[in-house]
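Recall that a protein's primary structure is simply its ordered list of amino acids. Everything else, from secondary elements to tertiary packing, is in principle encoded there. The following example makes that idea concrete.
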Amino acid sequence: MNIFRLLADLSHLLAIIILLIKIWKTRSCAGISGKSQILFAIVYTTRYLDLLTTYVSAYNSVMKIVFIVASYATVYLMYVKFKATYDHNHDTFRIEFLLIPSAILALLINREFTVLEVLWTFSIYLESVAILPQLFLVSKTGEAESITSHYLFALGSYRGLYLLNWIYRYIVEDHYELIAIVAGVIQTVLYCDFFYLYITKVLKGKKLQLPA
């Protein structure tokens, strides 16, 4: 554990809280990609199967359980409780184009060819592109609500901070995880355009708009 990982976890937790509060308070999931939320649920499920086999710490276990439960709670709110508000007409990204390549890549490039390691690797690859349906939805609708923008910024910050975590661990502990680093870089790059617009628009009280 280091300060960058702690801040990354807190940023991730903040993103989830922002999203759940947004959906619950407005009684609407408009502007949120259900397909991205499904992908995140798959990511956390396949990544944290080690909860059944390995104990690291209470903090580690609690955070993993929170992320899994929150991801499924979000999917439930979107596809069951507030289904009528879900914008399925714009949330049209073909997630199989993300799932299948991630699965194939995980089978070909992994740390160790075991079930848990392949699933962990699959989750890393998939998370790096899981936000694409959300960005695609924002692009199709033309803009994002401020609260949705805050959610995306917190989620993007989580991955950026995890990159700093890996840099810190390489310098201090002489340890690095190449798969996680490369996937993290890809994911952070996907957020770059959004980060720029967030800083120049949202923080100045303007609506965030992505080019269609």
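The chain has a mean pLDDT of 90. The two ends are 40 Å apart (CA to CA).
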